[in-house]
Amino acid sequence: MNKGRSSFIILYHRTPFDESKGVNGERIWVDQKSPNGIIPTLRNLFRSRVDGTWIAWRRVDQSGSDDVERIEMDNPSPFTLSRIPLTDNQISSFYHVTSKECFWPILHTFPTYFNVNNADWGIFEDVNRRFADAACEEAAEGATVWIHDYNLWLAPGYIREQRADLKIAFFHHTPFPSNDVFAILPWREQILESLLCCDVVGFHIPRYTENFARAATTLVGARRGPKAAVDKKFITVGTALAENSVTSHLEYNGRQVQLLSSPVGTSPDVIQELSRSAAVESHGELIVQDTKKGRKLILSASRVDYTKGNEELLLAFERLLERRSDLHGEVVLMLACVAAAGGMKIYEDTQRSIEEMAGRINGRFSQIDWVPIRFSTRRIPYEEMVAWFCQADVCWITPLRDGLNLVAKEYAAARRQRGGVLVLSEFTGASVILDGAVLTNPYSNRRMDNAIEAALSMDEEEQRNRMARMSEAVMNYTVKDWAEEQLAGFPEISLA
């Protein structure tokens, strides 16, 4: 195989910019609606080099167009965007069915939602192989390839088959489940053996790292390296996902695989700058006039997904209104729940259930001048979202399982040097990072009820003390810190 020119390659199904059309119909590239998050950070890895490549997919109308599209980008510095053509059928099978209907419920420990019947493993293998082939064609001798998330589980193995010279890192953006749950997947050995072809495998928190290490040792016979105390940025006692020690590396087929626990950070400077902007202040005034009206505002922001605990939250809010008639007209819940992409029945059913539940609660308790729940399924622009963070007295985040939950960290960043209460499920990765959150168990009515009561009654001094601890954690470990920690083993790659 002819070797390419790129010394650093990112594999991520998402593109670094959104494709759009200019006024004359020409193709233009625009930034994502949210300026916060990992995409800008990953792009910045190309700033100090002229030979980077980003590999993603592109949608095509028909098969047979196998040519990889290569586009020379110039922002933030010259790099190549390589796009693999996939038809609607391939995307549906690879992403919506195999990834979302098979992998997603297992990763989030919902095995009863697991559906293997529609999965076409051959298509999943083919898409992963095409990503791997593209990486190998672009990679120079000894290049570093950084692969992102579970839908590219098989890419490391395919890359290693072709290019023993490459350095491969992988980051897992979702939870990694316990060994017995992961073992439900009929392709478990192939997945693990592929990931064990990496030089570095990263997870958000030590619990997910340990789950992976246990699966690798028990299912394919990898050997554990020594365990070490977890980094000081993690809470080690008192939460469902706490760990006090973590495996440093695995050994398999003569290869040492370094394991890293690094939670994706935010861009707190971006959030704080936005919070002071005229646009956010304008949105904030509208929220005060239209929604708050002197009431306490509870914000919950997520997307339509059975893992996000939206139904459990709504039932807890209903119980609150049943117990506390004194809160009628005095509190309002804003449930921002972004609708899922079409074509997935389970998410359509979940959205219908949430809408019906919110409607029923509003029907029970609404007054002429007060509707207790504001409900939105639209994708809220980021500036407006920051305005909601700034105005919310309570941010209520209750997933049944979540890899990390950036919303919780964004709320803490927006509320720096202010009050506000974060009520957070202890089954989120963020729960072992944000010391100061009011932790709750969304599976327990009593824990949910106690947590929201505590949040609404908390005095200003305690609010500020708790928020100070959380905002410090967010400031001390940003998304840039995350990227640098993940790539520390590859000193030639740096964030400029």
Properties at a glance:
Rossmann fold, 10-stranded mixed β-sheet, 6-stranded parallel β-sheet, 16 helices, 20 strands
Going by CATH, the architecture of the largest domain would be 3-Layer(aba) Sandwich
- Please, how many domains? 2
Helix content: 25-40%
Looking at the structure, the CATH topology of the largest domain is: Rossmann fold
In terms of DSSP E residues, the strand content is 15-25%
Taken from the alpha-carbon principal axes, the silhouette is globular
- Name the average pLDDT: 92
Number of β-strand runs: 20
Kindly report the spatial arrangement of strands forming the biggest sheet.
5-6-4-1-7-8-9-14-13-10
Q: Under the CATH scheme, which class of the largest domain?
A: Alpha Beta
Largest sheet: 10 strands, mixed
Derived structural class? alpha/beta
In whole angstroms, how far apart are the ends?
Answer: 32 Å
Radius of gyration: 23 Å
Low-pLDDT sequence parts:
none
* CATH level-4 homologous superfamily of the largest domain: Glycogen Phosphorylase B
Number of helices: 16
Describe the structure.
The protein has helices spanning 38-44, 88-107, 121-138, 155-162, 179-182, 188-195, 206-220, 268-275, 278-292, 310-323, 345-365, 382-391, 406-414, 445-457, 460-476, 479-486; strands at 6-11, 18-21, 27-30, 52-60, 69-73, 79-87, 139-148, 167-171, 200-203, 223-224, 227-229, 245-247, 249-252, 255-261, 296-303, 331-338, 373-376, 394-397, 421-425, 438-440. It has 496 residues and is α/β, with parallel strands linked by helices. It folds into 2 domains: 6-265 and 479-486, 3-Layer(aba) Sandwich (Rossmann fold); 268-476, Rossmann fold, CATH 3.40.50. Strand 18, helix 13 and strand 19 (421-425) form a beta-alpha-beta unit.
